[in-house]
Write a structure and sequence with these properties.
By secondary structure, the protein is an alpha+beta fold. It contains 16 helices and 18 strands. It has a five-stranded antiparallel sheet.
Length: 483
């Protein structure tokens, strides 16, 4: 038995090759292989621990976690290899000489790999592209306008999952050399545009209301920045608009456009407004009973008087604002600006909109549902407001705290104009301020109560205080809205 063991030991220690003056035996090779395996296992374990526990505890973003984990993995592998080679007794100087000799011959054949390797380091350290980023290639590149989400970044290649659920393996040098659109690079919202073409004889104010209201109803659309409707131009047979909305994730673009297109077509058609399609202008030159979607049954083009809201449940902001003493003198263009600058807010049942004492920084119009106004301190119910009612305007105009609390009594949709939007309207349409002063002058008793309330709270400065209530309102108004 001893003879067999000695023979095996002799064979394992017998030099089979030499690197410089360093003999290499099977025993050394096995030690190196075992060390490499242990190093890889240890590197993966540490990497997983850092990525899934340590970096999460430190609050590092997912894309950064992946980059740091990859760098840690390769650093551990490099250090492990060096330590393993030294532990086996190999002379690293001899390996350096051999590697240098091989490098001259092999280097020319590995230029692309070296380029991808360096590019991988640039991506991982520079973090211009991170895991979970949504990227897009340019129209002049090999993968024209291809979009997808980054799944993995290694030192040689990057894996991207396209919208079609296919995986594209991209050399890192490609991502460094060519321009790439990164929709997630230091940006939290993304703009989506929808082209709308309508006839010239529609009610444009009603059209604006419906389009913006529909955009605000889409769950994936952000309220800040608010959706905007841009009038692009008047053509021979139609007027062209662009609806601009902002979403959180660009990968949801197709989903959002699909839902908005269906909703816009439905609500516009239901309210007597039909969209124009590319070759539809033929209906105006050769009218037929079955061609034009904008013609009525007697083949007449509808005028403003003929266009009506078919959906009786729709609350027209134009009608509500026109009945308000503050806005009844606005013309359709001014009303459109007021409607376009506001936004919609959805609230569930039993939701508190604001409490007594909160800042009066917005006013509201109820589009659907109902709200209850109450004073919790004295447990007193004041009123229930329903669709079409307006509230909160006095607090906004005077910049005073809320005098009561408001909560919804059913699912409710509100049209909201905040202080910034109201200030924009006032600066663009100075006549509104004069109308507001005239209207408020008719409420002397209520103004006196509000003035005293602000005095008691120490919220009126000496320069704006005035015994004359109208003068006080003007001073406060100009100060609040920088007029």
């Amino acid at each position: 038995m001893k003879t067999i063991l000695d023979t095996i030991s002799y064979l394992l220690d017998y030099p089979i090759i030499s690197l410089g003056n360093q003999p290499i035996s099977i025993n050394i090779i096995l030690q190196i292989i075992l060390s490499f395996v242990i190093t890889i296992i240890l590197a993966r374990a540490i990497t997983i621990l850092c990525k899934n526990w340590l970096f999460k505890r430190l609050g590092i973003e997912p894309g950064h976690r992946e980059a740091f984990s990859t760098l840690i993995f390769y650093c551990i592998i490099t250090c492990g290899i060096i330590i393993s080679l030294q532990a086996t007794g190999l002379n690293l100087q001899a390996l350096a000489v051999v590697a240098g000799g091989l490098g001259i011959g092999v280097g020319f054949g590995l230029q692309s790999i070296i380029k991808d390797f360096i590019s991988g380091l640039i991506l991982l350290l520079g973090r211009s592209i991170k895991v979970n980023d949504f990227i897009q290639f340019g129209s002049r590149q090999e993968f024209s306008n291809l979009q997808g989400t980054v799944q993995k970044i290694s030192l040689l290649f990057t894996v991207m999952k396209t919208k079609d659920a296919a995986y594209l393996i991209i050399p890192n040098s490609y991502l460094v050399i060519f321009p790439i659109i990164n929709w997630n690079y230091e940006k939290s919202d993304h703009r989506v545009k929808i082209i709308l073409k309508v006839g010239k004889n529609i009610d444009f104010l009603l059209f604006t209301e419906i389009v913006l209201d529909t955009a605000h109803q889409e769950a994936s659309v952000k309220t800040n920045p608010s959706p905007k409707l841009i009038f692009q131009g008047i053509h021979d047979y139609y007027c062209e608009f662009t609806l601009q909305v902002w979403i959180n994730e660009m990968k949801d673009e197709d989903f959002t456009i699909n839902r908005l297109n269906y909703a816009l077509e439905y609500y516009l058609r239901k309210n007597g407004i039909n969209l124009i399609f590319p070759n539809q202008h033929l209906a105006f030159t050769e009218p037929h009973i079955n061609l034009p979607i904008l013609l009525s049954e007697n083949n007449n083009i509808p005028t403003h008087s003929q266009t009506q809201v078919i959906d009786s449940s729709y609350i027209s902001l134009r009608d509500i604002l026109s009945k308000s003493p503050y806005f009844e003198h606005l013309n359709p263009l001014e009303l459109r600006e007021l409607i376009a600058i506001g936004y919609r807010q959805k609230l569930d049942k039993e939701t508190i909109l604001f409490h007594e004492g909160d800042p009066g920084d917005s006013f509201y119009i109820i589009l659907s549902g109902a709200v209850e106004i109450f004073v919790p301190k004295i447990n007193k119910y004041l009123a229930t407001l329903r669709a079409g009612d307006m509230f909160g305007e006095l607090a906004l105009i005077l910049g005073i705290p809320r005098t009561a609390s408001v909560k919804t009594v059913e699912k409710t949709r509100l049209f909201v104009i905040n202080k910034l939007g109201f200030q924009t309207i006032l600066q663009e349409q100075s006549n509104i301020a004069e109308v507001i002063f005239e209207e408020l002058s008719q409420h002397q008793e209520e103004l006196a109560q509000r003035q005293q309330q602000l005095r008691d709270m120490g919220l009126i400065s000496e320069e704006e205080d005035d015994v004359n209530l109208v003068n006080w309102v003007k001073k406060r108004f100009h100060k609040l809205f920088s007029l």
